[in-house]
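Annual report, structural modelling task.

Input specification for the 3,4-dihydroxyphenylalanine complex:
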Amino acid sequence: MSDAPARLQEIRVEAEAAIAAAGSAADLEQLRIAYLGRKAELTTMLRGIKDLPAEQRGPVGKGGNEVKRALEAQLAERVGALEAAELDERLRSDAVDVTLPGDPPQRPGHLHLITETRREIEDVFLGLGFAVAEGTEVEYDYYNFTALNHPPDHPARMLQDTFYLADEVLLRTHTSPMQIRAMELQEPPIYVIVPGKVYRRDHDATHTPMFHQIEGLAIDADITLADLQGVLLEFVRAIFGAEREIRLRPHYFPFTEPSVEVDVSCFKCGGNGYVADGSHCNLCKGSGWIEILGSGMVDPNVLGFVAGNGYDPAKVQGFAFGMGIERIAMLRHGVPDLRLFFDNDVRFLEQFGS
Ligand code: DAH
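The model returned the following structure:
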């Protein structure tokens, strides 16, 4: 044991080198156990001082405690340094780069073009004093046909390709049955429009099995065809522009007499039929007019079905009209194919709506 002080210095050099080289907190803990633990050489030496020759007790006790404190201090420093480095690294790797662009913003949705168009049309008629009513999509033959003056086996029933659900029960082919239901529910006078889904067995670029219509009905004491004309002119100007004119052409519908088809003056060529370079307008096909709805004076036979509720054809009369919402939207926005409305392709849908 004569070289104990020298051994102390060897332990110190070896331990200090090991501590300096340690790469992790776990390594440092191993070194603490190895050099300062209960079974460590240094600990054993300090414990054995009392057995040393008297002249060595002082130097070994003092030197040993010095080495012990020095190693403890170094360990503490290295643990601190490693923790700081780990924190640094965590901060670096978890850092948020505030200069990166953010997540793409959620695109807000908007109303479907059909809904938007329906609401615009409703607004026009609400402004003219009409109420809005909705009917059932599953309808009786009676309301869809019979009470609208289609006698049984009348060929007019063939004008519309009907989905039958059961004998006498069908998917309504138009919103016109609500004329009868509305008059059953309310005595005259009545001013009502009826938006809703209708169904027909048809499928091509201009027909889908389901589409939307808006029906109009006005019954009062002194209504004439001039009232119909005034109301529809107002509607057409609100939807297609203040300069528009309308034209009434004779037509046939079972539930109106007389019946007319209503055209709006072309809003692409201004009604001229030709465009700036002298070529025919492709929207109105050179005619200057575009068909937009069917209409007429309500047939007295129709009023006869609700005469019990005050609709005596001798006392009241009125007009009715019906239009396709898709058709109005297609014309206004230049949509070439009706089926686009129902494909749910956002590339189409997102072009519209506010
Ligand atoms: N219901 C007709 C159709 O779907 C449209 C129509 C024409 C409605 C004349 C009317 C009207 O109210 O008077 O083709």
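The chain has a mean pLDDT of 92.
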